[in-house]
């Protein structure tokens, strides 16, 4: 039973939008690509773990805080007598261990992921104590990518390698027990501690004028598109997308990057690069947003905001 679903991190979405519209510094581009790879690994983990988690309560992508220290749990599985804490890595290629130090095949030292696993388990235990929750914790470092290999790894380490995944899943199944209402309430209490707005969100500085305008292809992110009747066609990969859906997607990107900017027909027309007429833009806005104000002060706001307020 999934108590907290995994969703695309806002930081990843923002970086993805920016990467398609502005040339990022190399350091920022590497950071963004690592975000993408990390999320791909988490999705692969979810797909693998689902058949083994039928009698478990699953909490994904938790950002928690205890004693003024913030920490992240990639995935957590709760049963009657145990809490499984998973740190997921999507490393690819050959690595090796020398003492407690981790190296790539090119002899570049990397952070020891086991240190992060141990730290997170310690902080998680502290948080559970604060919440009055008593349960046994088992923590594992999961390498999900089949192209990963670690040399010189002692068998005693709490590591699950790609070739061991299915056997490990069966082991989890054997340890799992049917959950009851009390366990569900405990899982929901833990989920309620999740911090919605991540303080880790880190974006490179950018300005509106520096960003590429236009409706970008949903598939290849190219701005080399043209309008045919009610379809936006990509010249690079030939993808065809309904123009209204493409405009809505572009509005979403605009709102993500500039949450304080007013949504107007002129603003969205410019943001979309003028590929469609203002009449079409206005039609989409009127259908999906609420118009407030008059004349020059007119702007569109989300209908959801009206309901929430």
Automatic annotation (TrEMBL):
Q: Which InterPro entries match?
A: NERD
Q: Which Pfam families match?
A: NERD
Domain NERD, which positions? Answer: 37-147
- The protein's name is NERD domain-containing protein
Q: Per the UniProt entry, what species is this protein from, by scientific name?
A: Falsibacillus albus
Q: What is the lineage of its organism?
A: Bacteria, Bacillati, Bacillota, Bacilli, Bacillales
């Amino acid at each position: 039973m999934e108590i907290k679903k995994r969703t695309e991190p806002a930081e990843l979405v923002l970086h993805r939008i920016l990467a398609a519209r502005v040339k990022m510094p190399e350091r920022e581009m590497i950071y963004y690509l690592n975000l993408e790879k990390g999320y791909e690994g988490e999705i692969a983990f979810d797909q693998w773990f689902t058949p083994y988690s039928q009698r478990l309560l699953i909490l994904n992508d938790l950002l928690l805080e205890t004693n003024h220290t913030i920490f992240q749990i990639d995935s957590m599985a709760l049963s009657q007598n145990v809490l499984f804490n998973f740190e997921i890595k999507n490393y690819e290629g050959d690595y090796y261990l020398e003492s407690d130090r981790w190296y790539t095949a090119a002899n570049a030292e990397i952070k020891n992921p086991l240190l992060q696993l141990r730290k997170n388990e310690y902080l998680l235990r502290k948080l559970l104590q604060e919440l009055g929750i008593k349960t046994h914790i088992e923590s594992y470092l999961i390498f999900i990518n089949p192209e990963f290999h670690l040399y010189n790894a002692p068998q005693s380490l709490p590591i699950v390698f790609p070739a061991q995944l299915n056997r490990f899943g069966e082991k989890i199944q054997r340890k799992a027990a049917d959950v009851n209402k009390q366990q569900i309430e405990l899982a929901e209490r833990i989920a309620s501690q999740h911090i919605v707005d991540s303080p880790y969100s880190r974006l490179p500085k950018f300005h509106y004028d520096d960003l590429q305008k236009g409706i970008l292809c949903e598939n290849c992110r190219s701005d080399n598109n043209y309008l045919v009747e009610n379809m936006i066609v990509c010249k690079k990969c030939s993808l065809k997308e309904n123009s209204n859906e493409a405009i809505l997607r572009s509005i979403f990107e605009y709102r993500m990057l500039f949450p304080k900017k007013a949504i107007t027909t002129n603003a969205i027309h410019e943001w979309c690069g003028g590929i469609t007429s203002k009449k079409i833009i206005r039609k989409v806005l009127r259908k999906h947003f609420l118009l407030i104000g008059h004349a020059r002060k007119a702007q569109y706001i989300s209908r959801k905001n009206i309901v929430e307020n």
